[in-house]
Amino acid sequence: MIRPEALALVARWGEAGFAAAVVAAGLWLARLGGWVLPPIGLAVMVTGAGLLLLALRRLRFRQDTAAPGLVEIDESQISYFGPAEGGFVSLRELVELRLLARGGHRFWRLKQADGQALLVPVDAAGAERLYDAFAALPGIDMAALLRVLRPASSFEPTVATDTLGPVIWRRDARPALT
User: Fold this and answer.
1) How far apart are alpha carbons 47 and 122 in whole angstroms?
2) pLDDT of the chain along its 178 residues, tens only?
3) Does the first or last residue of the chain, that is N or C, have fewer Cβ atoms within 10 Å of its Cβ?
């Protein structure tokens, strides 16, 4: 009954819409007046603004699903199940994070301490969950992560060439991108 395009739009913007509604509810409470409601409304507005900022960052991180495979995150373990390759990496054993371009597609390159690397397509189903997993890494600069994840047309050099991008995060070191 509801068009798939409309459902996709609601699914994409739902979190940001909820956060905007929280800000609006806080504004409504603040305008009721008195001694109690304006401070509560202000607190609700600040909370909603924080939720809105986080929702907009997650929205920039989300890509259209175009790559095969599925990304799952369970108890600080990132799993990628692909048709030809896949694997697991624990966030505790992760030592390096990069963005790689190969064969016209972009991949997260997650390197473990033992040298093994897991390639996870940026546009695989469930890859948007990686935002919260990467945010848990100590010392990561999420703004730098979002800058690197610009649309494919601005990825340097180009996505058509196979390139290993700069280090986005490395354990026990300051983030490489500033």
Assistant:
1) 30
2) 788 888 878 888 889 999 999 999 999 999 998 899 999 999 999 999 999 998 988 888 777 777 788 999 998 899 999 888 889 999 999 999 999 888 888 899 999 988 899 999 988 888 888 998 999 999 999 888 888 887 654 444 444 567 788 888 998 745 555 5
3) N
Residue 112 lies in a domain: yes
Predicted structure pTM score: 0.73
CATH of residue 133's domain is 2.30.29
If one counts the domains in the chain, the total is 2
Domain that holds residue 33: 4-61
- Nearest to 127, CA basis, from 147, 105, 144: 105
